[in-house]
Protein backbone atom coordinates (compact mmCIF):
# COMPACT_ATOMS: atom_id res chain seq x y z
CA UNK A 1 0.00 0.00 0.00
CA UNK A 2 1.00 3.59 -0.52
CA UNK A 3 -0.13 7.08 0.21
CA UNK A 4 -0.01 9.57 -2.73
CA UNK A 5 1.35 13.03 -1.80
CA UNK A 6 3.56 15.87 -3.12
CA UNK A 7 6.85 17.31 -1.98
CA UNK A 8 7.41 21.04 -1.42
CA UNK A 9 8.14 21.58 -5.08
CA UNK A 10 4.82 20.05 -6.12
CA UNK A 11 6.24 16.77 -7.39
CA UNK A 12 4.17 13.61 -6.91
CA UNK A 13 5.39 11.18 -4.16
CA UNK A 14 4.11 7.75 -3.08
CA UNK A 15 4.85 6.93 0.62
CA UNK A 16 4.80 3.33 1.69
CA UNK A 17 2.08 2.77 4.26
CA UNK A 18 0.70 0.19 6.60
CA UNK A 19 -2.97 -0.12 7.47
CA UNK A 20 -3.67 0.02 11.20
CA UNK A 21 -7.26 -0.13 12.31
CA UNK A 22 -8.41 0.58 8.76
CA UNK A 23 -6.24 3.68 8.51
CA UNK A 24 -3.13 3.94 6.29
CA UNK A 25 -0.03 5.18 8.23
CA UNK A 26 3.35 6.05 6.69
CA UNK A 27 5.73 3.12 7.08
CA UNK A 28 9.19 3.85 8.65
CA UNK A 29 11.73 1.11 7.99
CA UNK A 30 14.96 0.77 10.12
CA UNK A 31 17.81 -0.75 8.18
CA UNK A 32 21.37 -1.87 8.91
CA UNK A 33 24.34 -0.34 7.10
CA UNK A 34 24.14 -3.16 4.56
CA UNK A 35 20.48 -2.29 3.77
CA UNK A 36 18.80 -5.24 5.48
CA UNK A 37 15.85 -4.48 7.68
CA UNK A 38 16.09 -4.50 11.49
CA UNK A 39 13.24 -6.09 13.38
CA UNK A 40 12.18 -3.41 15.91
CA UNK A 41 11.85 -4.35 19.56
CA UNK A 42 8.35 -4.75 20.77
CA UNK A 43 7.02 -2.96 23.82
CA UNK A 44 7.15 -6.19 25.81
CA UNK A 45 10.82 -6.63 24.96
CA UNK A 46 11.65 -3.07 26.11
CA UNK A 47 9.81 -3.59 29.36
CA UNK A 48 11.76 -6.78 29.99
CA UNK A 49 15.08 -5.00 29.36
CA UNK A 50 14.10 -2.20 31.74
CA UNK A 51 13.30 -4.75 34.44
CA UNK A 52 16.61 -6.50 33.92
CA UNK A 53 18.47 -3.17 34.25
CA UNK A 54 16.74 -2.56 37.59
CA UNK A 55 17.72 -6.04 38.73
CA UNK A 56 21.33 -5.48 37.63
CA UNK A 57 21.56 -2.18 39.56
CA UNK A 58 20.23 -3.94 42.67
CA UNK A 59 22.85 -6.68 42.27
CA UNK A 60 25.70 -4.15 41.83
CA UNK A 61 24.55 -2.34 44.96
CA UNK A 62 24.62 -5.64 46.86
CA UNK A 63 28.14 -6.38 45.60
CA UNK A 64 29.30 -2.90 46.65
CA UNK A 65 27.88 -3.52 50.11
CA UNK A 66 29.74 -6.82 50.30
CA UNK A 67 33.02 -5.16 49.18
CA UNK A 68 32.66 -2.53 51.90
CA UNK A 69 32.05 -5.29 54.38
CA UNK A 70 35.32 -6.97 53.29
CA UNK A 71 37.29 -3.76 53.79
CA UNK A 72 35.87 -3.28 57.27
CA UNK A 73 36.13 -6.91 58.24
CA UNK A 74 32.37 -7.63 58.47
CA UNK A 75 31.42 -10.27 55.88
CA UNK A 76 28.54 -12.77 56.22
CA UNK A 77 26.25 -14.92 54.01
CA UNK A 78 26.36 -15.26 50.25
CA UNK A 79 25.69 -12.94 47.35
CA UNK A 80 22.79 -14.27 45.25
CA UNK A 81 21.05 -12.95 42.15
CA UNK A 82 17.77 -14.89 41.81
CA UNK A 83 16.44 -12.90 38.86
CA UNK A 84 19.30 -13.93 36.51
CA UNK A 85 17.11 -16.88 35.49
CA UNK A 86 15.00 -14.43 33.59
CA UNK A 87 17.96 -13.72 31.31
CA UNK A 88 17.83 -17.19 29.77
CA UNK A 89 15.66 -15.93 26.97
CA UNK A 90 18.37 -13.50 25.82
CA UNK A 91 21.14 -14.26 23.32
CA UNK A 92 23.75 -13.73 26.13
CA UNK A 93 24.00 -16.44 28.76
CA UNK A 94 25.26 -16.03 32.35
CA UNK A 95 26.65 -18.59 34.81
CA UNK A 96 26.60 -17.31 38.41
CA UNK A 97 27.12 -18.80 41.82
CA UNK A 98 27.12 -16.85 45.06
CA UNK A 99 30.46 -16.23 47.02
CA UNK A 100 30.59 -17.44 50.61
CA UNK A 101 32.21 -15.59 53.53
CA UNK A 102 35.19 -17.97 53.41
CA UNK A 103 35.67 -17.37 49.69
CA UNK A 104 35.55 -13.61 50.10
CA UNK A 105 38.19 -13.81 52.87
CA UNK A 106 40.47 -16.24 51.03
CA UNK A 107 42.67 -13.40 49.70
CA UNK A 108 42.61 -10.74 52.41
CA UNK A 109 42.99 -7.17 51.28
CA UNK A 110 45.69 -5.05 53.07
CA UNK A 111 44.07 -2.14 54.80
CA UNK A 112 47.21 -0.52 56.54
CA UNK A 113 50.64 0.59 55.34
CA UNK A 114 52.32 -1.89 57.69
CA UNK A 115 50.59 -4.79 55.86
CA UNK A 116 51.85 -3.76 52.42
CA UNK A 117 54.72 -5.89 51.09
CA UNK A 118 58.06 -4.04 50.59
CA UNK A 119 59.87 -4.14 47.24
CA UNK A 120 63.00 -6.25 47.08
CA UNK A 121 65.96 -4.31 48.56
CA UNK A 122 63.78 -1.63 50.18
CA UNK A 123 65.03 -0.10 53.45
CA UNK A 124 63.22 -1.19 56.59
CA UNK A 125 62.48 0.99 59.60
CA UNK A 126 65.41 -0.67 61.39
CA UNK A 127 67.76 0.22 58.54
CA UNK A 128 66.54 3.81 58.45
CA UNK A 129 66.93 4.09 62.24
CA UNK A 130 70.58 2.94 61.97
CA UNK A 131 71.28 5.54 59.30
CA UNK A 132 69.62 8.26 61.36
CA UNK A 133 71.77 7.35 64.38
CA UNK A 134 74.93 8.06 62.37
CA UNK A 135 73.88 11.68 61.87
CA UNK A 136 74.76 13.90 64.85
CA UNK A 137 73.29 17.27 65.76
CA UNK A 138 75.55 20.24 66.43
CA UNK A 139 76.83 20.39 70.04
CA UNK A 140 75.30 16.98 70.86
CA UNK A 141 77.17 14.96 73.49
CA UNK A 142 79.21 11.96 72.35
CA UNK A 143 78.85 8.48 73.82
CA UNK A 144 80.74 5.19 73.63
CA UNK A 145 79.63 3.08 70.69
CA UNK A 146 78.20 5.96 68.66
CA UNK A 147 77.85 4.89 65.01
CA UNK A 148 79.46 6.97 62.32
CA UNK A 149 80.64 7.09 58.71
CA UNK A 150 84.26 6.41 57.78
CA UNK A 151 85.86 9.37 55.99
CA UNK A 152 88.08 8.37 53.11
CA UNK A 153 91.24 10.20 52.10
CA UNK A 154 92.95 10.10 48.71
CA UNK A 155 96.67 9.44 48.32
CA UNK A 156 98.12 12.24 46.22
CA UNK A 157 101.90 12.47 46.06
CA UNK A 158 101.94 15.72 44.10
CA UNK A 159 100.69 19.01 45.46
CA UNK A 160 98.47 19.72 42.46
CA UNK A 161 94.72 20.11 42.86
CA UNK A 162 92.41 17.14 42.31
CA UNK A 163 89.26 19.15 41.54
CA UNK A 164 88.22 20.78 38.31
CA UNK A 165 87.40 24.32 39.32
CA UNK A 166 86.96 26.70 42.22
CA UNK A 167 83.99 25.73 44.40
CA UNK A 168 84.08 22.00 43.54
CA UNK A 169 83.95 19.40 46.32
CA UNK A 170 87.23 17.68 47.15
CA UNK A 171 88.55 14.94 49.44
CA UNK A 172 91.21 14.89 52.14
CA UNK A 173 94.68 14.12 50.78
CA UNK A 174 97.55 11.98 52.13
CA UNK A 175 101.18 11.73 51.04
CA UNK A 176 103.04 8.59 49.96
CA UNK A 177 103.53 7.60 53.63
CA UNK A 178 99.83 7.90 54.46
CA UNK A 179 100.21 11.13 56.45
CA UNK A 180 97.43 13.65 56.09
CA UNK A 181 98.46 16.66 54.04
CA UNK A 182 97.70 19.81 56.01
CA UNK A 183 99.97 22.40 54.46
CA UNK A 184 103.01 21.75 52.29
CA UNK A 185 103.55 25.37 51.43
CA UNK A 186 102.66 28.73 52.93
CA UNK A 187 99.31 30.24 52.18
CA UNK A 188 99.10 32.16 48.94
CA UNK A 189 98.14 35.81 49.26
CA UNK A 190 97.56 38.43 46.64
CA UNK A 191 99.60 41.60 47.11
CA UNK A 192 98.03 44.77 48.46
CA UNK A 193 98.52 47.70 46.08
CA UNK A 194 97.68 51.40 46.03
CA UNK A 195 98.91 54.81 44.92
CA UNK A 196 100.00 57.93 46.77
CA UNK A 197 99.12 61.02 44.72
CA UNK A 198 98.69 63.61 47.49
CA UNK A 199 99.91 64.37 50.97
CA UNK A 200 97.98 62.53 53.69
CA UNK A 201 96.92 59.63 51.47
CA UNK A 202 97.44 56.04 52.66
CA UNK A 203 97.85 52.53 51.30
CA UNK A 204 96.77 49.88 53.83
CA UNK A 205 96.90 46.09 54.27
CA UNK A 206 94.83 43.89 56.57
CA UNK A 207 97.48 41.72 58.23
CA UNK A 208 95.43 39.64 60.71
CA UNK A 209 96.23 36.38 58.86
CA UNK A 210 99.95 36.65 58.18
CA UNK A 211 103.10 37.48 60.08
CA UNK A 212 105.32 39.63 57.90
CA UNK A 213 105.25 42.06 54.97
CA UNK A 214 107.66 43.00 52.23
CA UNK A 215 106.85 46.46 50.82
CA UNK A 216 108.23 48.46 47.89
CA UNK A 217 107.29 51.55 45.91
CA UNK A 218 107.68 52.43 42.21
CA UNK A 219 106.49 55.14 39.88
CA UNK A 220 107.38 58.65 38.81
CA UNK A 221 107.23 61.09 41.71
CA UNK A 222 109.12 63.83 43.50
CA UNK A 223 109.91 64.33 47.19
CA UNK A 224 107.49 61.87 48.75
CA UNK A 225 107.92 60.72 52.33
CA UNK A 226 105.68 58.11 54.02
CA UNK A 227 105.44 56.93 57.62
CA UNK A 228 105.08 53.23 58.50
CA UNK A 229 102.11 52.74 60.85
CA UNK A 230 100.21 49.89 62.50
CA UNK A 231 96.84 49.57 64.26
CA UNK A 232 95.36 47.12 66.76
CA UNK A 233 91.73 48.18 66.36
CA UNK A 234 91.20 49.49 62.84
CA UNK A 235 88.41 47.78 60.89
CA UNK A 236 89.08 49.17 57.42
CA UNK A 237 92.60 50.62 57.29
CA UNK A 238 91.34 54.14 57.97
CA UNK A 239 89.56 54.26 61.33
CA UNK A 240 91.04 53.28 64.68
CA UNK A 241 94.21 54.26 66.52
CA UNK A 242 97.51 54.20 64.64
CA UNK A 243 101.12 54.22 65.84
CA UNK A 244 104.57 54.16 64.24
CA UNK A 245 106.21 50.77 63.53
CA UNK A 246 109.71 49.83 62.46
CA UNK A 247 110.79 48.40 59.10
CA UNK A 248 114.22 47.20 58.04
CA UNK A 249 115.77 47.76 54.64
CA UNK A 250 116.27 44.65 52.54
CA UNK A 251 119.86 45.59 51.66
CA UNK A 252 121.20 46.66 55.09
CA UNK A 253 120.62 46.50 58.84
CA UNK A 254 118.97 49.89 58.66
CA UNK A 255 115.85 50.28 60.76
CA UNK A 256 113.45 53.01 59.66
CA UNK A 257 110.03 54.30 60.67
CA UNK A 258 109.70 56.40 57.50
CA UNK A 259 110.79 56.01 53.90
CA UNK A 260 112.56 59.35 53.91
CA UNK A 261 112.12 61.83 51.06
CA UNK A 262 112.21 59.83 47.84
CA UNK A 263 112.11 61.12 44.26
CA UNK A 264 112.55 57.74 42.56
CA UNK A 265 111.93 54.09 43.29
CA UNK A 266 114.54 52.97 45.85
CA UNK A 267 116.96 50.12 45.09
CA UNK A 268 115.72 48.30 48.17
CA UNK A 269 112.48 47.22 49.84
CA UNK A 270 111.44 47.13 53.48
CA UNK A 271 110.53 44.09 55.57
CA UNK A 272 108.23 44.33 58.57
CA UNK A 273 107.08 41.96 61.28
CA UNK A 274 103.32 42.51 61.64
CA UNK A 275 102.65 39.87 64.30
CA UNK A 276 99.79 41.04 66.50
CA UNK A 277 98.72 43.88 64.20
CA UNK A 278 95.31 44.09 62.54
CA UNK A 279 96.27 46.65 59.89
CA UNK A 280 99.45 48.16 58.47
CA UNK A 281 99.65 51.23 56.26
CA UNK A 282 101.98 53.78 54.73
CA UNK A 283 100.85 57.40 55.14
CA UNK A 284 102.24 60.29 53.11
CA UNK A 285 103.63 63.06 55.30
CA UNK A 286 105.32 64.95 52.46
CA UNK A 287 104.38 65.11 48.78
CA UNK A 288 105.45 67.28 45.87
CA UNK A 289 104.22 65.62 42.68
CA UNK A 290 103.71 62.41 40.70
CA UNK A 291 102.35 58.97 41.57
CA UNK A 292 104.07 56.69 44.06
CA UNK A 293 102.75 53.13 43.59
CA UNK A 294 103.06 50.80 46.59
CA UNK A 295 103.07 46.98 46.57
CA UNK A 296 102.79 45.04 49.85
CA UNK A 297 103.33 41.28 49.65
CA UNK A 298 102.35 39.20 52.73
CA UNK A 299 104.32 36.20 53.93
CA UNK A 300 103.39 33.42 56.37
CA UNK A 301 106.78 32.05 57.42
CA UNK A 302 107.66 32.74 61.05
CA UNK A 303 110.19 35.56 61.20
CA UNK A 304 112.25 37.31 63.83
CA UNK A 305 110.76 40.69 64.72
CA UNK A 306 113.07 43.16 62.96
CA UNK A 307 116.32 41.13 63.09
CA UNK A 308 118.39 44.28 62.63
CA UNK A 309 117.06 45.63 65.92
CA UNK A 310 118.84 42.88 67.79
CA UNK A 311 122.30 44.17 66.91
CA UNK A 312 121.68 47.90 66.70
CA UNK A 313 122.44 50.53 69.33
CA UNK A 314 125.12 50.57 72.00
CA UNK A 315 125.89 47.21 73.63
CA UNK A 316 127.68 47.16 77.02
CA UNK A 317 131.00 45.26 77.12
CA UNK A 318 133.62 44.63 79.81
CA UNK A 319 137.35 44.69 79.45
CA UNK A 320 139.14 46.52 76.69
CA UNK A 321 138.16 46.72 73.02
CA UNK A 322 140.91 46.85 70.43
CA UNK A 323 140.69 48.96 67.30
CA UNK A 324 140.21 45.77 65.27
CA UNK A 325 137.00 45.01 67.16
CA UNK A 326 138.39 42.13 69.24
CA UNK A 327 137.27 42.15 72.89
CA UNK A 328 140.01 41.33 75.40
CA UNK A 329 138.92 40.48 78.95
CA UNK A 330 141.53 41.34 81.59
CA UNK A 331 141.39 38.69 84.33
CA UNK A 332 140.99 39.79 87.93
CA UNK A 333 144.14 39.39 90.09
CA UNK A 334 143.00 39.38 93.73
CA UNK A 335 145.12 40.02 96.83
CA UNK A 336 145.74 36.90 98.92
CA UNK A 337 146.12 36.79 102.73
CA UNK A 338 147.23 33.81 104.89
CA UNK A 339 146.64 33.71 108.67
CA UNK A 340 147.61 31.10 111.30
CA UNK A 341 145.33 31.41 114.34
CA UNK A 342 146.50 32.82 117.63
CA UNK A 343 144.99 31.83 120.99
CA UNK A 344 142.27 34.48 120.67
CA UNK A 345 139.27 35.43 118.52
CA UNK A 346 141.75 36.72 115.91
CA UNK A 347 139.64 39.87 115.10
CA UNK A 348 141.15 41.12 111.79
CA UNK A 349 140.51 43.97 109.30
CA UNK A 350 141.52 42.69 105.86
CA UNK A 351 140.40 45.77 103.89
CA UNK A 352 139.28 49.08 105.37
CA UNK A 353 137.14 49.99 102.32
CA UNK A 354 134.63 48.38 100.01
CA UNK A 355 135.89 45.20 98.42
CA UNK A 356 135.06 41.81 96.97
CA UNK A 357 135.95 38.42 98.43
CA UNK A 358 136.65 35.92 95.64
CA UNK A 359 137.53 32.84 97.65
CA UNK A 360 138.12 31.58 101.21
CA UNK A 361 139.93 28.41 102.30
CA UNK A 362 140.17 27.45 106.01
CA UNK A 363 141.31 24.23 107.69
CA UNK A 364 140.81 23.08 111.30
CA UNK A 365 143.04 20.57 113.17
CA UNK A 366 140.98 20.75 116.36
CA UNK A 367 138.72 17.88 117.33
CA UNK A 368 135.72 20.24 117.45
CA UNK A 369 134.04 22.49 114.91
CA UNK A 370 135.32 26.05 114.77
CA UNK A 371 133.65 29.11 113.10
CA UNK A 372 134.96 31.79 110.69
CA UNK A 373 132.83 34.96 110.89
CA UNK A 374 132.88 37.69 108.18
CA UNK A 375 131.91 41.33 108.88
CA UNK A 376 131.06 44.20 106.50
CA UNK A 377 133.20 46.67 108.42
CA UNK A 378 136.11 49.00 107.71
CA UNK A 379 137.89 48.05 110.94
CA UNK A 380 138.51 44.98 113.08
CA UNK A 381 135.23 43.65 114.50
CA UNK A 382 134.18 43.78 118.15
CA UNK A 383 133.61 40.05 118.58
CA UNK A 384 130.40 39.27 120.43
CA UNK A 385 129.03 42.78 119.79
CA UNK A 386 129.22 43.28 116.02
CA UNK A 387 126.94 41.06 113.90
CA UNK A 388 128.69 38.97 111.25
CA UNK A 389 127.24 38.96 107.68
CA UNK A 390 128.39 35.39 107.07
CA UNK A 391 129.36 32.55 109.45
CA UNK A 392 131.28 29.61 107.96
CA UNK A 393 131.63 26.39 110.02
CA UNK A 394 135.02 24.68 109.72
CA UNK A 395 134.63 20.92 110.31
CA UNK A 396 136.67 19.19 113.02
CA UNK A 397 139.88 18.00 111.40
CA UNK A 398 138.52 19.22 108.08
CA UNK A 399 138.51 21.94 105.44
CA UNK A 400 136.01 24.71 104.49
CA UNK A 401 136.05 26.30 101.00
CA UNK A 402 134.01 29.25 99.68
CA UNK A 403 134.03 30.19 95.97
CA UNK A 404 132.73 33.69 95.30
CA UNK A 405 132.02 32.83 91.66
CA UNK A 406 132.30 35.20 88.70
CA UNK A 407 130.81 38.12 90.66
CA UNK A 408 132.53 37.52 93.99
CA UNK A 409 131.07 38.34 97.43
CA UNK A 410 130.75 42.11 97.65
CA UNK A 411 131.42 44.00 100.91
CA UNK A 412 130.28 47.62 100.55
CA UNK A 413 132.08 49.01 103.66
CA UNK A 414 135.08 46.82 104.33
CA UNK A 415 136.25 43.25 104.80
CA UNK A 416 136.77 42.03 108.39
CA UNK A 417 136.71 38.60 110.08
CA UNK A 418 137.21 36.65 113.35
CA UNK A 419 137.41 33.05 114.71
CA UNK A 420 135.32 31.61 117.56
CA UNK A 421 134.73 28.23 119.11
CA UNK A 422 130.91 28.74 119.09
CA UNK A 423 128.46 29.61 116.31
CA UNK A 424 126.35 32.28 118.04
CA UNK A 425 126.79 35.86 116.85
CA UNK A 426 127.41 36.88 120.46
CA UNK A 427 130.04 34.16 121.08
CA UNK A 428 133.47 35.38 122.29
CA UNK A 429 135.18 32.05 123.04
CA UNK A 430 138.66 31.96 121.50
CA UNK A 431 140.32 29.27 119.44
CA UNK A 432 143.69 27.69 120.22
CA UNK A 433 146.90 28.83 118.70
CA UNK A 434 147.73 27.06 115.46
CA UNK A 435 144.37 25.25 115.27
CA UNK A 436 143.02 27.25 112.33
CA UNK A 437 144.67 28.43 109.11
CA UNK A 438 142.76 30.95 106.89
CA UNK A 439 143.46 32.04 103.26
CA UNK A 440 141.35 34.89 101.80
CA UNK A 441 141.54 36.22 98.17
CA UNK A 442 140.02 39.69 97.72
CA UNK A 443 140.11 42.86 95.68
Descriptive overview:
The chain is mainly beta. 10% of the residues lie in helices and 32% in strands. The protein has helices at residues 43-72, 101-105, 125-133, and strands spanning 2-6, 12-20, 23-26, 153-155, 172-174, 192-196, 202-206, 212-222, 225-231, 242-244, 247-249, 255-256, 270-273, 279-286, 289-299, 320-321, 327-328, 335-340, 348-351, 355-364, 370-376, 390-394, 399-403, 409-411, 415-420, 436-442. The strands form 7 sheets. It has a 6-stranded antiparallel sheet, with no helix packed on it. A hairpin with a 5-residue loop joins strand 11 (247-249) and strand 12 (255-256).
Secondary structure elements and their pairing?
Layout (H helix, E strand, L loop, with lengths): L1 E5 L5 E9 L2 E4 L16 H30 L28 H5 L19 H9 L19 E3 L16 E3 L17 E5 L5 E5 L5 E11 L2 E7 L10 E3 L2 E3 L5 E2 L13 E4 L5 E8 L2 E11 L20 E2 L5 E2 L6 E6 L7 E4 L3 E10 L5 E7 L13 E5 L4 E5 L5 E3 L3 E6 L15 E7 L1
Parallel strand pairs: 4-5
Antiparallel strand pairs: 1-2, 2-3, 6-15, 7-14, 8-13, 8-15, 9-10, 9-14, 11-12, 11-13, 16-17, 18-26, 19-25, 20-23, 20-24, 20-26, 21-22, 21-25
Amino acid sequence: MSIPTKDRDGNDLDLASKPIGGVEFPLNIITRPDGTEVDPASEDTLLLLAGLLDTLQTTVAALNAKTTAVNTGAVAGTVEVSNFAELTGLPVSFTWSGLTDTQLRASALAVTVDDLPLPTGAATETTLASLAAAVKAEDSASADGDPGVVILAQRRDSDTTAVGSDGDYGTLKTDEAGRLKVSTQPASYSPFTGNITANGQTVAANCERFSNLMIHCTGTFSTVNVTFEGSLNSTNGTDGTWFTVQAIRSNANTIETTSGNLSAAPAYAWELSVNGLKWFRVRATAFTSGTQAWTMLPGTYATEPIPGAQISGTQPVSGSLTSAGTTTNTPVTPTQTFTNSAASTNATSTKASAGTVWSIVANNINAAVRYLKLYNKASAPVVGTDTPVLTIPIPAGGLAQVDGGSNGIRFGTGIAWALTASAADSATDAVAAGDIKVAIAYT
